[in-house]
Amino acid sequence: MQESDNRVQRFNENIIPFIPDGDFYFTKGAEAFQKHKFDVATKWLHKAIETDPENPLYQCQMSIVYTEIGAFHAANQLLNDVLTSTDDHYPDCYYLLANNYAHLGLLNEAKKHAKIYLDQATDGDFSADAEHLLDLMHIDEEDDNNEWQFDEEDELLVYQETIFHHMENNAWNEALPLLEEMLALFPEHQSIKHDYTYALFAVGYTEDAIRMELEVLSEHPDSLNSHSNLVMFYYETGRKKEYEWHLNQLLNVYPMREQQKLRVAVTFARTGAFNQAYSRFKQLAKWQLKSHLSYFKWYSITAYNLGEPAKALSLWKEGCKRHPQLAEQEGPWKTE
Description:
Elements: H1 2-13, H2 22-34, H3 38-51, H4 56-68, H5 72-85, H6 92-104, H7 107-120, H8 127-136, H9 148-168, H10 172-185, H11 190-202, H12 206-219, H13 224-236, H14 240-251, H15 258-270, H16 274-282, H17 293-305, H18 309-322
């Protein structure tokens, strides 16, 4: 018996434990990506990045997965993080950014990043793709004299897309300074003011946010965005009378644009008016809102709170597939 125990002990001592490293997770993620199993690829690549957060290759591959599923904002955020952390020594990021900007319709930004890539990596892996991208956009050097007409519009769109990504992910400290820049650069755009007050409220400047939104409302009494924000502000601060008054202003408002319709639906959901939220969510054109994490999150929460757990789970799963960062949040069944 003693001899048997000794053999077992020697056997155990000779076993070398397998401890997976970042390359192991990365390989698994790349294999899943090749098989178009993007949700599986995302999980493996998350593990790779957690194991070695300084490896730019892992983050670039994750950005490619995000691009494939249409999460261009998340992809661009990762790529810009890589460029910052490597002091611009990872030029592949510029081509990947150019490709994403082209998908978003930001052609000047796409052109700019494609050219930076070609300047830094003349014989790089993506050089032919970058040149082809420029050809597809029909942007040639002789057109430079006309580009000034689009620069301001492109700049505004870049700001809006970046801020949209931050706000969808509750990254308020990142969104706030960009919104302050936008207020200075584009003071004529009213929607910026509403996003700014919302961000102010989110980071704790409660009374400033309410005061600024009331000032805007005094100039534009029918402002949907003002009423929507004030519903949230007063609900969160427990001012029931003011909350109910502004909520009533929204009950009979049916906007034309899908983003505005979504804003109303989410406002109802966030303040516990689930019946009103549900009727609004059902009227939305889902195909126009697939890039909005808030659509899947708050529609799922609404369905769950109205006794439809199967529908809630289906929406949450689809949301996590399209917006992997949603999987990092707790589902509606864990909010009780």
